[in-house]
TrEMBL record, chains A, B, C, D:
Annotated Gene3D superfamilies: Hotdog Thioesterase
Residue ranges constituting the Thioesterase domain according to the UniProt record: 55-128
Pfam families: 4HBT
Keyword annotations: Hydrolase, Membrane, Transmembrane, Transmembrane helix
Annotated InterPro entries: HotDog_dom_sf, PAAI_dom, Thioestr_dom
Annotated SUPFAM superfamilies: Thioesterase/thiol ester dehydrase-isomerase
Record-annotated membrane-spanning stretches: 69-92
Record has Transcription regulation as a keyword: no
A GO molecular function held by the record: acyl-CoA hydrolase activity
Listed name of the protein: Phenylacetic acid degradation protein
Length: 145, 145, 145, 145
């Protein structure tokens, strides 16, 4: 019922997000699906004024939005666009101040069950290997027939 | 050094947030400090298009922003505007779909130490007693002299 | 299907835990159900050598066991002994060193759905009002017919 | 002040844990340091009656003890035995029923700061690649002179 290989391509996923979640692009698109693979996904958030806090640092809520979106996209890519997963919990550790640059979210699904999906995300400043924010999330998958 | 009674009033806190975090009001003010008390705070997020997801439900990231802001405001009210606390971790459980109404965040500080503050937040739809989102957060407090 | 009032008494719950989880009493009983109420429960962990860390403080794992047990008992009291809930996530904040005394775990269910239950626990040293450990937990409830 | 390379060997760390935390070996040693590396550590928990739940599955508290111990050991190996780190938060996701076998905890430090260390742990049944439990933890490091 759930596969460990993605059943949506990067382009199909992008088209789905554009159509169903237009509000994430409000004020100009900054979120991009970079890559989809077996049980994993990579998203990118461009540097933009609306993600900033005073001092030029990227806001916590922007990083939380990116992590949730990356996990959501990874799950969707594996279960398809019919069943809408619902976020049930998210845990974040904020480790370092992000640089004033794009952020990359590398996401890995730890479990993809019939009712529950769980994954983790590491967020980096583009071109750096230091994790600035780490997240884990759990998602409820509705009954499908 | 840290008191269990707030040392900033609701108006002082509001003025501080308006001055230091103008970006939270971008697109029209929706976040308001409703109340400050001993080790607690209440914030309110007005219902607004930019907080929505398809179907009229309020987005997870908007609730996460509200929770983080409520905890931050509660800490600030007790330690004063000099020392800027930094969010180190946040944990969220999403319990129910919020109604299409304003959200109220009730926040309680569980610990207010010299270096670390910890609190929890329950978010409700205005006029309801069902928790729609529960959060706990930890904040690092820089050294003060 | 799920009620907001307990359907098992304190004595029924105690008998169930004694029968199904005898290993929590290994080395002498230290865990006790103190109270069951609407969407809440109180458990107690007696002070005992096997819960200690060097310096006489109570170990983190002992507090985590107490929190998980309190949440589990609260859920069971409301859904009955047939359907066994499974812990899916736990989040802990350790706030203060516990005193060398019994610990009390006050637990409140935030959601008791058909498939998912979520609750929070505050752990205190007996006779004190300072929270030493705060936990939130989510539990999966198997399909019942 | 903190190095990204361990300054204690596996044997030094084992000797330190045996001396300072004898109670983790009560009832027979089941916890072993398997490996220490740059910003990582691997611990092992042997299968033993006292870690079980009815049905032969390994208990949640046993896995939580293993995760906390693995993170603690990884931090200690990098900062040395003088400064005792204190667990400030732990987050767990329980993903699958562990097999009736030894568990391996693979731990990676995401941040090793002057005051705060953060890491994540994946726990596997020995010989399997499915994560049964995933944890993240934060640890406060006392001031050193």
């Amino acid at each position: 019922m759930t596969s460990h290989h993605p059943i949506m391509s990067k382009d199909e996923l992008t088209a789905f997000l554009d159509r169903e979640f237009p509000q994430i692009h409000e004020g100009g698109q900054t979120f991009f699906v970079d890559e989809i693979g077996p049980l994993c996904a990579r998203m990118r958030m461009d540097y933009h004024d609306r993600h900033l806090r005073p001092g030029g640092t990227i806001s916590g809520p922007s990083m939380m939005t990116l992590a949730d979106l990356a996990l959501y996209a990874a799950i969707l890519a594996h279960i398809g666009p019919v069943a809408l997963a619902v976020t049930t919990s998210l845990n974040f550790n904020f480790l370092r101040k992000p640089e004033p640059r794009a952020l990359i979210a590398d996401c890995r699904l730890l479990k993809l069950g019939r009712r529950l999906a769980v994954g983790e995300v590491s967020i980096f400043s583009e071109g750096s290997s230091d994790v600035v924010c780490h997240a884990t999330g759990t998602y409820s998958i509705p009954d499908r027939r």
